[in-house]
Amino acid sequence: MQVFLGDPRRFGLAGCALTIGNFDGVHLGHQHMLQRLKEEAKARSLPTALLTFEPHPREFFTRSNPPARLSTLRDKFAFLRELGLLDYVFVFRFNQRFSGMSADAFIRDVLVRDLKTRYLLIGDDFQFGAARKGNFDLLSACPDFVTEAMPSVLVQGERASSTLVRERLALGDLDAANALLGRCYQISGKVMHGKKLGRTIGFPTINVHLPHLKPALQGVFVVEVETPLGRKGGVASLGLNPTVSTSSDYKLEAHLFDFSGDLYGQRVTVRFLKKLRDEERYDNLPALVAQIERDAASAHTYLTSLQREQA
Questions:
Q1: How far apart, in whole angstroms, are the C-alpha atoms of residue 309 and residue 35?
Q2: Which domains does the chain carry?
Q3: CA–CA distance from 25 to each of 12, 49, 163, 169 (Å)?
Q4: Strand ranges (E), the chain
Q5: How would you label 78-103 residue by residue, b for 16+ Cβ within 10 Å and e otherwise?
Q6: What is d(CA 97, CA 78) in angstroms, rounded to the nearest whole number?
Q7: What is the pLDDT of residues 88-110, one digit of tens each?
Q8: What global pTM score does this model have?
């Protein structure tokens, strides 16, 4: 899978089978769409391609209160590459100029001229162009490519969507969110230096940089952390740390069980297995430490049970 940023005309495509979308989280609905795209592309002897956007259009239009991002651009590429269904990913910068492009201009200049689209697969609710005036009927009228709409994918009776995943994560319903994703929800980032308070109270933590201002979930969780030094279970807090901080910046801190090592500057992946509780503010540090001890014990119990089930 090749990833291209910027003007696609310089890539010299001779034709492609294309789908369009943000693919935030790359959930089961996205995965089914890409599988269908691969089948149609094979029947037409075409490479598969995804046109996606950065930033997310909703982030662009609601800058003061953007929706939570399910996956970073890096993680999105990793999920897509793991599926092995795409030949190309084109990332367009969603800016003022692009947001004002008419639906007709998007078809003419991007889909036909730049990407040489021969087959287009879209979701059943796809809209595009300035004021979202473009739709399936307009695309179907273009003689340069075949357009098909894929019906929604249902998971446990509900339409799989990034919005629904965000809603389930916000409620702390990891089982439902993970069912929609087809995997455990995860956040990746570099380990940064923090206040190092955890080591003074017997619970050293890694502080994982959050690339976006607003996480999709908050609370205290049982986690599994993939590091360059191996995979470790642990307990993590994702939130504002109100007992020890007055900052409005969200923080992801994880205490890893049976671990010693230096991870500063290294990229890790935190997978969220179970929510233990919401974040709380405690009157003093001893009360916080006592709760962390209970959280760690609960996480140990859960991970031990999980290991027995998988044995």
A1: 31
A2: 2-159 (3.40.50.620), 184-310 (2.40.30.30)
A3: 29, 18, 10, 12
A4: 2-5, 16-20, 48-54, 88-93, 117-123, 146-150, 154-155, 158-159, 186-192, 206-208, 219-227, 230-239, 251-256, 267-277
A5: ebbeeeebbebbbbbebeeeeeeeeb
A6: 29
A7: 999 988 887 888 889 999 999 99
A8: 0.89
